[in-house]
Amino acid sequence: MTGWLQSVHPQTLRVTALALVLALVILFFGSQIDNYYTARMFNRISTSVAIILLIAIGQALVVITRNIDLSVGSIVGFTAYLVGDLLVAQPDLHPLVVVAAAMALGTALGAVNGLLVAYGRVPAIIVTLGTLALYRTLLVEYSDARSITTANLPKWVVELPQATLFSIGNLDIRVTFAIALGVALVVHLALTRLRAARRLYAVGSNPDAAAIAGINAERVVFTAFLLSGALAGLAGFVFLARFGNITVVAGLGFELKSVAAVVVGGVNIFGGSGTVIGVVLGTTLVDVIDNSLTRWALVSEFWRDALLGMLILIAVAADTLMNRYLDRLRRRRHMSELSAGTAPLPRETG
Amino acid sequence: MPEPVLAPPVLTLAGVAKSFALTAALADVSLELMPGEIHALVGENGAGKSTLIKIMTGVHQPDEGTIRLAGTAVTITDTQAAQRLGIAAIYQEPMVFPDLDVAENIFISHRDQGLLMDWRRLHEAASSQIARLGVTLDVRRAASGLTLAEQQTVEIARAISLDVKVLIMDEPTASLSAHEVARLMAIARTLKDQGVAVLYITHRLEEVFELADRVTVLRDGRHISTRPITEVTPDALVRDMVGRAVDHFVPKAAAGPHGELVLRVRGLAREGVFTGVGFDLHAGEVLCFSGLVGSRRTDIGLALFGIQPATTGTIELDGRAVLIESPEAAMRHGIAYVSEDRRKLGLAMALPITANISLASLRRLLGKLGLIDRRAELAMAEKHKERLNIRTHSVALEVGKLSGGNQQKVMLAKWLETEPRLLIFDEPTRGIDVGAKTEVHAIINDLAAQGVAIIVISSDLPEVMALADRVLVMREGRQMGIFAIEDATPEGIMSLATGERPADAA
Amino acid sequence: EPVTATKGESVNMVLLPKFLGILPFDQAHRGAQEAHAELENKGELLYVGPTPENSVAGQIEIMTTAATQGQDVVMLSNNSGDQIVPSAQAAQEAGTKVVTWDSPIPSAEGETVFVAQVDFNDIGVVMADMAHNIMGGEGEFAILSATPDAANQNAWIAAMERALEGEKYANMTLVDTVYGDDQSELSYNRALALVDKHANLKLIMAPTSVGIVSAAKAMQDEGLCDEIKVSGLGVPAEMVSYTMNGCAPEFALWSFVDLGYLTYYTSYLIATGAIPGNVGDEFEAGRMGTFSIEEDPTRDAGNRVLMGPFTVYNADNVEAAAQ
Amino acid sequence: MRRLVRWELLLLVILAVTIVINSAMSPMFLTIGNQINLFQLSIEKIIVALMMTLVIINGEIDLSVASMMGLAACAFGWLFQLGVPAGVAIPMVLALGLLGGAFNAFWITVIGMPSLVVTLAMLIGFRGMARILVEDRGITGFPEWFNALGQQPILGPLPLALLVFAVLFVILLVVLHRSGFGRKVYVIGNSAEVARYSGVAVPRVKALLFIASGFVASLAGLLYTARVSAVRGDVALGFELDIITMVLLGGVSIFGGKGTLWGVLLSILIVLNLRNGMALANITGHLQTGVIGLLLILSVLVPNLVQSARLSFRPGSAAR
Ligand SMILES: Nc1ncnc2c1ncn2[C@@H]1O[C@H](COP(=O)(O)OP(=O)(O)OP(=O)(O)O)[C@@H](O)[C@H]1O
Ligand SMILES: Nc1ncnc2c1ncn2[C@@H]1O[C@H](COP(=O)(O)OP(=O)(O)OP(=O)(O)O)[C@@H](O)[C@H]1O
Ligand SMILES: [Mg+2]
Ligand SMILES: [Mg+2]
Known about the structure:
heterotetramer; A: mainly alpha; two-stranded antiparallel sheet; 71% helix; C: 323 residues; alpha/beta; 4-stranded parallel sheet; 10 helices; elongated; binds adenosine-5'-triphosphate
């Protein structure tokens, strides 16, 4: 056994286990699919991860506070449509204004969720199940069955998905992917460094204790929903740019996808713990499995979903078991050092 | 000896009243806290002590009455407001954040530490706070792995790390052993010297007399008396609390010949937790486990009850080796385990008293078709309400709404109802008042007299001395020795538990 | 002698699309409204439908409710396969006629007649021909459909596969059929997966309006429009930019406005008893001319009114149609 | 306890209001035929909702129920196409439901994964298996007697599924509120640790619930097949959200430990009547789901607001 295990933080362990699982999955598909380890495959997956990653990060922030946001799919659809509509009406808007508008819209919808959950004291699942339906209803009523079409959108929006920030060899770092990664990095830094952000964990970890410790739990939960809304709004804009054609079904199903990415990424569904790196890995894992299955010649179209479900299950199980094993190893090592007298005693000896 | 205090009171409560739905928890209570005093607050379970301090910290709002801070009337809307006013509290039930590490738990309430986290400084500061308490605890550890006593330590560190004018401690020593209690008292005195007003709630009267300058007694939500400690005697205090005189400790029935050998444990160990535990236990015998906080006494209990089965060693019941791999198996063998952590492990807080009491013996209430006989269940609860003097207007009340001590009694009732042969009590009198403690001790003695084999894990040395036939001392997961009670002294037990004396001296 | 409708009768009619919120069904609604005004119907024309998420159960629910309300006719674009049969039969028994349009009831049970936009076999041929044109008669192509349960798409794909057996298409190979569930994101990803899976792919044929735009956008975004073309069935307004830039040089569609109009006429005539709804009935459908009920050759049972034709759009006519 | 009674009272009021408005709006509403239809149209969902109530009170969730319904239906269609007589296929499909539930239970209780993750994966997985069985086919032509089970009245005007619902309701009512098993369900929902420390075989209770949930879902899938007399890969797609909505509106806490079957019954009645009333008033599609979403939120929000308004009357007594 090695000494480093002892000093490793449990969250790091968790992420390591997940990364191992991801590596195994990639190795497996690499042996099954020709031309798997190519720049093209990287580009495919990186671009397809971009949208769901944004949503999943927002979802993670909410889940960490022991809540859930099932309305994200509807927020994505709503912002994608409204921003599209705005762009059709005013094609000359500055890109930053457009992005800001998308995020503001998402934030507003998130604020409604946040108000109801934090200050109205309605359980998040009830609120967001409700707004999942309500936001979609608003969109349908507003859109009146018109759809946004690529032809009416400004060129820069339509071309955004193929815009490349820089390339390493054939590996393109697309702008949309860079946006998602950038957001992930910012949120990661905030969650680990920003004092205020640590309150998300405190509230999710033990709401009663948070109240007693003088944390304004309402405001923290409200903020988490705001951020989730804002990120869903941003994702809505990327969605618009990517698909161009926006109908009332836009974003349908993102709520369950984001929850899946978050829990696979090791965020505790009962709040209190979770890392952005985990979310990135979880999102990637689900997406890699999905994208690989569609390219696996052996698998017929009708077998895909059954395999997807099973592979997610096995991946999470492997992660759970590996994590548990590493943790046990770590504890055992600590104890053997303890009885050998090489480790500092964990408690007072007098 | 306390000087007469001349400074104006830092916190004044006048005419405070508070009721919950059907319970009047406080009625017309007044209290003055002086800077630089340690003020003890005592009273029976449910007397309203915790409610009173929750009013001071803004958790509850009073129905009537005023609060003045240094003379000015204040409304304490929430705990943040209380903190701003310089009032902090250590609550009766530890409230830690299981997912955060110890250091963050300690400093979570500090709001003046800048925008960014400085993890290194945080951990250093936390370490020194913990060290002040005379405990070694890895501040990087997640709080989820902490024992109850360690959680209590974290709570204390959190409160004393704040720069406060009033520090309230609601039974801080309930799960600490003498050693840690001494350190805590030293800290309380230091704070007092710095001019802090300390309000100290405890059921251990010896602490009151050792520490307090003044003592206030509450009974049934009413203020009974406030007197300098020099003017009261223990008996007078108890009379104030209970309204009548109470014998302190039921004298132990003369240790008669014990019955059959019930339990024989040899070489019991759980990898990485404890090792080398072995003892015999006869019917009608009380064996106490003593040791410092974290000496792994609880873990032995958990192993015997099948929660965390031992990895090596043998357990024999009535001369037959048994494998106990789950609580169900333990219960089939007639073993019961009363947990030290009633909140997390002992009671379903949102369920009524009845359901909690019947939980471990549901099987006996089931009629045909596996349906619960509700009348019998109610009778069962009423019986225990009488017997253990559980203070409640109805046994249909949610357990979570009872006072701490009464919750403890409900948990005892649950296990008594299973009529076990081997009963393991883990800190059985944690947080219960003198009267109730006497009752619990009487119950334990009764059970022993009826031939139940009993293990009591206790950090309360006087309790150990009062109850035990024999004492088993643990240190750092190792069994240091077993004494017959005749050979045991508190000093002897403590020095063995702290390692000041070599094990073989026992 | 074709039957002409008597204006001004009172017929309560329900137009029930697959779900609410997308353009083609709204266009059909417009056509129906046009006919409603033209025929001076004193009754009501209702446009009700389920959500996309709840399409099957919702259609059954609305069909049942319509029977309860005693509506005279339900015009159904069926998304429920044969699951709608019991409720459609119950409606018929309660005196509510069921006329399908756009997508029929596969077994034809519970259905009076199906107003077919075009001959389903013809769609197969047209798709094969478009593929032939674009690919120059040789190479590999794949199909990106809606869901595996979409009855129209399945019928059209089957028809196309039959057409492909012809001599003319001998050098063309259909290598894969995948489903994008009529969602942009899935369709987009499936299109790219097809490209990666089949190195020699020359065309993606998407007989669904969501699938075709998503595939076109995917090819455009990945800069693949030169090698891989997109075709199928699409709405001109949504497709115009891809047709003009060469990603989707050719696609086809019919007029949903006309389909709604013709469905309304057929239903009105049947509900008023002007025609019994049997094979051989001939009738006048306002501005669209004369139609007749015939046996549906593309199903094992059932009758149809064939609308036809449809338009193939390309760079020459798409911009005008998109207006 | 008293809180729950109050919750159910609120639901009762909502239900009464719904019924009054509905009958005022449409003369058809109160006819027996319509009342039976109103149940029939969602009967499979509400049967599953009853079982889901127990699962959620136990502190878990089963998101795979709708996919299991689909799988059951497709398995039935597939067996039937293979030439297995319907009478034989039915028990086989029910066994499949048990098996599917046991499969979920394995990952949850033996491996120790959260039920949300497991059943989310199987929401995809079971649906995928259904796809493997029927691919892009639609299967019909089941025997008359089978279809009749779903469509014809069996007892008076009542169809079989409604009887199944009634019987299941009574059984679960007794199990949840009167039996030792039900008590354990509540305790585990409250705190699984407390239950374990009290000698409750937590994994066994959980496993039983998931197995039962799989079984009930497969039964519901069969009833659905009989009602619509056809099978396709998308049977019951997306039903899980409706089912969970009904359970939550019934006052069951998503965190477990709280709620009653009576509450869920009332919430089922509200949702069905509201749906039906809106459909009769030609309000369909998103507007309908929107109204139910709004009701869901308001039913919790309004009492909360009323409560805090009442409290702020008595200055400074905001109960936490
Ligand atoms: N949230 C609540 N709802 C209803 N009743 C409550 C609530 N909190 C406390 N009570 C009641 O108020 C009374 C006083 O309780 P409190 O917790 O203040 O007692 P205590 O003096 O701290 O007792 P102990 O020594 O057992 O901790 C008890 O009867 C208790 O049941
Ligand atoms: N490092 C740890 N990680 C996780 N759980 C722990 C750890 N240390 C102790 N525990 C758990 O805490 C409980 C009490 O442990 P322990 O045996 O140390 O208590 P004890 O000797 O009775 O002392 P205490 O007075 O603290 O209860 C047990 O359930 C034990 O498994
Ligand atoms: Mg108290
Ligand atoms: Mg202990």
